[in-house]
Amino acid sequence: MDTAARTPETAQTLDRGLRLLHLVADAPRGLTVTEAAALLGIGRAAVYRLVGALTGHGMLRRDAEGRLRLGAGVLHLARRAQPLLAEGALPALRRLAEQAGATAHLTVVEGGEGVALAVVEPSWTSFHVAYRSGSRHPLERGAAGRAILAGRAGQAGPVSSTGELQSGAYGVAAPVLGVAGLEASVGVVALAPLDVATVGPQVNAAAEAVAAALR
Predict the structure, then answer these.
(1) How many CB atoms lie within 10 A of CB 75?
(2) Rg (CA), the chain
(3) pLDDT tens digits, residue range 50-61?
């Protein structure tokens, strides 16, 4: 078979492999080969071939029950991509920090938690929250995590919180929507109450700017 004839078949295999990775990523309990075959609409033998290749590259693994799970190779790629995400978000975060007079941040989902990937502090305030990049927190607590959960439900509006992650801290965040494979939010955190009517639109605009930069 010549190269031209193999090209459509190769593209189809690649597409199936990527779809399989997405299906496993979206399955909290993992998938059996039979379940994966049914979801992909292909035979078990074809799934076994995909699993063999993806396992060899560390993208998939089998747990003790034989169910398919994401492998460490996916985490490696994600960590390599994080600096690019942060770099793309920084201009919007800088504008937001200066507008709101509060510490701005990009939070992404990693391992079921929210992780502060990029943080920008305002330049003109006397006091502001010191928020460390790499800080982790449950998605159910704090404006950043709850904005991500709202984004999963298709809700784009700002979310506010008070003292959920740090006593005396106030947060407003909005989900970053429309970027394939990314669950994230943009928000601000301050030591004084934030006027959601004013800060909310600023946060929404920053989230939209980040999404546009990362597409």
Answers:
(1) 13
(2) 20
(3) 999 999 999 999
Rounded to the nearest 5°, which phi and psi values hold at 114? -90, 135
- Cα distance between residue 93 and residue 114, in whole Å: 17
Distance of alpha carbon 159 from alpha carbon 164, whole angstroms: 13
Pairwise CA distance, residues 121 & 93, whole Å: 9
| CB contact set of 138 (below 8 Å; sequence gap of 6+) | 113, 114, 145
CA atoms within 13 A on the CB side of 73: 12
Task: Give per-residue pLDDT as tens, 153-163.
Answer: 999 989 999 99
Rounded distance between C-alpha atoms, residue 190 and residue 199, angstroms:
11
Distances (CA, A) of 160 to 1, 97, 147, 187: 60, 16, 9, 9
Computed over every residue of the chain, the mean pLDDT equals: 92
Q: What is the 3-state secondary structure (H, E, C) of 34-99?
A: HHHHHHHCCCHHHHHHHHHHHHHCCCEEECCCCCEEECHHHHHHHHHHHHHHHHHHHHHHHHHHHH
Whole-model pTM: value is: 0.73
Bridge-based pairing of strands 68-70 and 60-62 is antiparallel
Mean local confidence (pLDDT), 86-93: 95
- In angstroms, the CA 177 to CA 182 distance is 8
